[in-house]
Write a structure and sequence with these properties.
Blueprint (H helix, E strand, L loop, with lengths): L7 H14 L5 H12 L3 E4 L6 H9 L3 E6 L6 H13 L2 E6 L5 H8 L3 H4 L1 H16 L5 E3 L16 E4 L4 E4 L7 H11 L47
Parallel strand pairs: 1-2, 1-4, 2-3, 4-6
Antiparallel strand pairs: 5-6
Helix pairs in contact: 2-3
Bound molecules: iron/sulfur cluster.
Iron/sulfur cluster binds next to α7.
Length: 234
Amino acid sequence: MTTAPHTAQDLERLAEQAGRDLEEASALDVLRWAADTFGSRFCVTSSMEDAVVAHLAARAMPGVDVVFLDTGYHFPETIGTRDAVAAVMDVNVITLTPRQTVAEQDAQYGPKLHDRDPDRCCALRKVAPLEEGLRGYDAWATGLRRDESPTRAGTPVVGWDARRAKVKISPIARWTQEDVEAYVAEQGVLTNPLLTDGYASVGCAPCTRRVLEGEDARSGRWAGLGKTECGIHL
Ligand code: SF4
């Protein structure tokens, strides 16, 4: 479905209203609202940790755009999950890449920028390409959940992304890890094989480690660097 772009003012109003109306709605109903309201100007972003939100969105809007950021630092398992999602699901996978390859970045900033200045590395390889890739959309969905970490505890189901002037939708914000696992099992949803190999949250290989017993899901990301988010969701 092709939909005309909304003005930023309209979008902000829509986000505020839907944030109130859809707080208790099911994830599928939230995505049906997004599909009806934004049509082709709506996309899902996926880190390819699992395909839960992409699966839900495809039920609400077959052929929905699923945006994946290929930082050049992903585990092969993550790229494999992306390829499997593109092959078997009724979605349109769009891969975004940073302006520089890893080799070009190394030449300009020195090797392993992720160890020395992860905020800059994420800004170059995640935040900037997503910023550009989302330009043609009025609304985007994420897989953020409140139970993932203290920094995500206040995630709205529908909110206003003031930085990008877009509606930001987190349809499974209220889900728990158990809810995700139940949906994956019931619907046979694709997941990243690393989730059964000790990883609870999957990001770039140099910045992701397995989690220990009792740690929250995102504690394996940028471990020891005092960093909890890449900057996309701040
Ligand atoms: Fe760079 Fe690590 Fe951020 Fe990936 S997660 S963009 S490797 S700092």
